Amino acid sequence: MDFSPFFISIKTALLATAITFFLGLFAARLVVKIKHGKGLLDGIFTLPMVLPPTVVGFFLILIFGKNSYVGILLSQINVTVMFSWAATVISATVVSFPLMYRTTRGAFEQIDMDMVYAARTLGMSERKIFWRILLPISWPGVAAGTVLSFARALGEFGATIMIAGNIPGRTQTISTAIYTAVQSGDRATAYQWTGIIIAISFSAMIMLNYWSNYQSKIISRCAKK
Amino acid sequence: MSVHVDIKKSFPDFNLNVKFEAENEILALLGASGCGKSMTLKCIAGIEKPDEGQIVLDGLVLFDSEKGINLSPQKRKTGYLFQHYALFPNMTVAENIAAGIQLPKREKDAIIKEKIQMFHLDGLEGRYPSQISGGQQQRVALARILASEPKILMLDEPFSALDSYLRWQMEQEISCVLEKFGGTTLFVSHNRDEVYRICNKIAVMSHGNLEAISEKWALFNNPQTLAAALLTGCKNISHAKKRTDYSLEASDWNVTFQTEEKVPDNLSYVGVRAHYFVPSYDESEPNTLKGSIQRVIEDTFSTIIMYQLGGDSSIRWEVDKQTYHSLQKYEEHVFLKVFPKDILMLSE
Known about the structure:
The structure holds 2 protein chains of 2 kinds. By secondary structure, chain A is an all-alpha fold. Helix content of chain A is 80%, strand content 0%. Chain A contains 12 helices and no strands. In chain B, 26% of the residues lie in helices and 34% in strands. In chain B, the strands form 5 sheets. Chain B has a 6-stranded mixed beta sheet, with helices on both faces. Chain B has a 5-stranded antiparallel beta sheet with strand order 2-1-4-5-6, with helices on one face. The two termini of chain B are 34 Å apart.
């Protein structure tokens, strides 16, 4: 059995989760902070979650395709995104981003604003407030968002097959490998990959539950007042 | 250390209009909930932005709408004690206290140590806020504020989250802290008793407006406005009209009162505190209310008597239990008399 889909999937999901982690934090903080246009921005950030993955894929083709501005720009420095490993990362990132953004935003909005105000009157800089107070307090939510994003990135199929294709050894992930296996009647391989992907996602969720229970015990009472 | 505040801010349901000055004293902002007390503190701290006006602390302009100055909360050096203390749950007691100190480590540690001792927090340095009691949380919050060396202290309903026993204890502690601090302190509360015990001067706030600042005894003896009378705990209030320079008509009670002081022209209410009625058995005496006892309520250390006048109006009369017992024989025929000096003449 060729294990390349496993490594490609894991590499893709890890990198996509890392990118989505920071983008999601940033977006959540932005939307919580701004006063006008909250609804609009929230709608845009959530779109990849509610649109069919094929539509997301189509948009990504429009953005990164050979004849697009970005595509032309990238081709001048000899980079092609379409049907490369980078494309699997891009689609996984875009599709997992709303999960990270929404979960983190929910966690941020739970925070008692008096805590932030108190920090400000004590002279703490906004950067320090974010990294030392906001983020640690909302850590259970942020962690949940990260694990959900990882699971979503790992399972990404629709947008991936549209812009990254299904090239064994290069862009074939576990999800696309299952598709190929089923298409060609190779039930045994399909079962194997299905088992593997369930095992990974399920254990990630279990770990998350244990860990966030432990975390919320530490910071329970005060934070929710 | 002095503070000068003159700000306006409009909200959908009320307009904040506050102007006062305070210098090295404890000034209470007394008002019902939602009257804009906390909002005033938040404007001074820089958490909220007033629409217009000026805030000056110790000669430093914190906010000036005309000059376009609006310092960030970080630069204002104000100490704000929140109702629920706003401790950082992810930091230990020592880390919480350290949060507001911007000094090299050695000096920082010295200050933390000093505050820990000052607030009797020894042994709790490594605990998290959720692991200590409410009173200890409040001490940590105060220690944290004082460690950041504020130029003004602002306490926002500091005792409302505590039970009555702890409340008394913390009140004593905070009084001591304020004495040591010595600078300007603003104390927001809706509890007249705690305000009376802690502060020297009281500013009454009602519907976003700050009425005149007065010495506390003057305010309780002569509240002058309806809002002040209600906030200082006056239970009996009637609409009133001026009759002559020394008499007025309390229209809800159907009685004409003789007064000691001259009746002001803008008189619109009259108030009598529940303790100030005297039983009388002669209805022809002046300043006497005629009616009958409607209901008697036993309170912890006094007896509250609801006294029904003609029509819908009733009077709340409080007597100590002994007086009530000596009264019982005549209760059918008792009248209520008010001395002219105990009549509170109130404007809108």
